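hi support,

uploading two proteins for the ticket. first:
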Amino acid sequence: MTEIEDLEEYQLIKASMDGLVASMDDSSNMKKMMLHICSSGGKSIRPIILVLCTELCGGHSQKSVDAALAIELIHSASLIHDDVLDDGVIRRGIESAHKKYGVPAAILCGDFLISKAISLISSYGTDSVLEFGRAGMYMAEGETIDISSAGREFRKNNYFDCISKKTAALFAASAAIGAYVAGADRDLALKLRDFGECVGNAYQIVDDLLEYLDRLEDKQSTYESVTLPQILRRSMGHEEAVRVTVEEVNSYVNRAKEILDEFSTSDAKDKLLMISNLITLDMLPANILEENQSNS
């Protein structure tokens, strides 16, 4: 089965990121932190979606590289800052930046990444820059909702508001920016923004479900967010909460696929469909998927 790391788009982004880090001053502590962050082995899902959406809309992947790097950098910055807020100890299987280098250095590294991301996205058109800025603001808003989530007053509508901003906003921006890079009009870009938002929501719900089931091995935090299955457990049993959570995932994934169905067959479309499954439904334990399918 094809893995994300096998995609040409992944290799393009990885090579470009390696080149960016290599060009930094060797004596810079920032470079050391960047090397540590890059060693965590992230799959670059959001920038890959950006590049693929450029290709889907008839553009060339090379045109979208700087925009894709901007997305990856602001995402990395958000993870650094999130780990500081949550006292995250392990991220992607390695020590978090603030545990290794200290909180002040980690915060400054996050600030550096955001600034570099802005410089990279600034060479694109107004629409792309506005999408990028919108995502950054939503991510911060979503995180403020998340850190205040403890307590029974945090309900389903609060949860979905949180994840649509904290997580799905950057997926949405990635897809829309990819379209704009290719020269697509606003209607097409907004359609792909909807696709990205659906995939991003499904991705976060799956991540939260895996955490609820204690199936996450490469992430460890002192603070834990209130998640959908936890909210559902207030009014139903464990198995029912899991089933309803998986139904939500299916709903978002199906909507994302319906949007892609409106596009002609292409290699980029096939890859986007594959990624939509790989980072959502394919991440769920087989027994849970089978049980959900038998009940549907």
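and the second one:
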Amino acid sequence: MSLENTPRKSITDEFLARLEQHRRYLYHIAYRLTGNTEDAKDLMQETIWQAHRKSNKYVYEKSLKAWLRTMMTNRFRDQKRKKSLKLVALEDAFIQSEPPHAAQTKSVEEQVEQRMMMEQVKDEICDLPDIYRRVIVLRHFKGYSYTEISEALDIPEGTVKTQLFRARKMLKERFSKK
């Protein structure tokens, strides 16, 4: 161990000790936000972990409690937002993705057939596991870039690409069986 790492390590350990002093306070806030013990414990742990990771961004003149409270409420809001990604708009996305003149040039039979196909695709996407469904929806129906999906879901860009690949593969396999 070099001497250069020692001061940083002791500062980090000191900061972690300060975070641990606020564990009870954080739990009470987390419980008020989540309404149950397990989710509150998870949120508290995630907040402490995130605060420890971002310790270099903490300004020591400011209240640590206020900083932690803000971090926790933001994390809670982000989690709620992610969970609320709904597929209700899928059908609208299909309709909007169709060029306006296309419906006029197709026969009634073709329109019905296309509508049935869209319903089938929608059903298959809804049956995908959540981790795959959300990236498909954001990429193909909301038009998000890989970077935007990565930021929205708080996952690495490489994971976004992997999940999209697997989701498309699953859909392809499902349609090839029909």
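thanks. also noticed: The longest helix spans residues 64-83.
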